[in-house]
Amino acid sequence: MTIPDATVGEGALDGVAIDGVPTPGAARAAGPGISWSGGWRFVRPLLNALMTLVVIIGLWWAAVAMLGISPLIAKTPADVWSYLIHGAHTGTGGQSVWGGLGRTLLDASYGFVAGLVAAVVVAVSFVLSRIVAGMLLPLAVLLRAVPLVAMAPVLTLVFGRGMVSTTVIAGIVVFFPALVTMTYGLRSASRQSADLVRAYGGGTPTVLRKVMLPSALPALFASARIAAPGAVVGAMLAEWLATGVGMGYGMLLDANTFNYVDIWASAALLTAVSVLLYNLIAIAESAVLARFSLRDAR
After folding, report:
1. Stretch (H or E) spanning 165
2. How far apart are CA 214 and CA 210, in angstroms?
3. Helix or strand or coil: residue 5?
């Protein structure tokens, strides 16, 4: 490795690989030469999603057949498919489920972004300052320890029954697992790499940008994969307890009106969407980690 002049500023490390992990400049210099192993990295998550859905449908079908539950209560995958597809086309059912799904995904997206961004910011502050970590970590643990069902009425009183309340509740579900994963990822950065950056005149922001954050990319995507289904669950909880819209509230009404096929259809659709979101993030992870040559570091 060619050692740049120590008098050069923070840009001196652009294009230099540190412990096998290229800085952004090195990744740019690598260009199209990075091997993508064909399209397998993109196809594999989709195959995983398909296999997961096949297993779920098989277990679902077997459980309904073996447990002998009344057809009035238990619905098979064929019943749900007919309700969601054919019923929606004929106007006899399914519209409420598809309409509620759009609102729930919107609510979940706000909570996902808010919770993940907050987790990254707090994790960075934990790593950079032990004082901040000592002050905020007990609050984060307390936030996790209190059941969200108990907190939801208080959050509703504080933030109202609109989008802000939904974002806060869904964001809380996302926040703590992402915080733990990101903190571990940032702290796992190579100390030797950080010392090398400082030896060439880089300060703490440079260490964070060129060493910690690139090293924490696998942790960031792991957090996002976990957070996506969690955000959907948090959004439904908020709709059920606070806003009165979306699939969460729709399933509550269905239980009161004995509309069991709507409940099964909602649960099946949300499961499929959660599996799909998880694997779409896995595809994005493959692309980004290949770009930074971090795939083998996972």
Report:
1. helix 163-187
2. 6
3. coil
For residue 2, the 8-state DSSP code is P
> CA-CA distance, 277 to 224, in Å (whole number)?
10
Whole-number Å distance between alpha carbons of 214 and 223: 15
Tell the CATH superfamily of the 36-297 domain: MetI-like (1.10.3720.10)
The residue type at 99: G
**126 and 138 Cβ atoms separated by less than 8 Å:** no
The pTM score is: 0.76
What is the average pLDDT score of the chain?
79
Rounded Cα–Cα distance for residues 297 and 218 (Å): 8
Sign of CA dihedral 230, 231, 236, 240: positive
Q: 3-state DSSP call for residue 22? A: strand
Query: Once rounded to an integer, what is the mean pLDDT over residues 47-63?
Result: 87
Is 262 within 8 Å of 93 (Cβ atoms)? yes
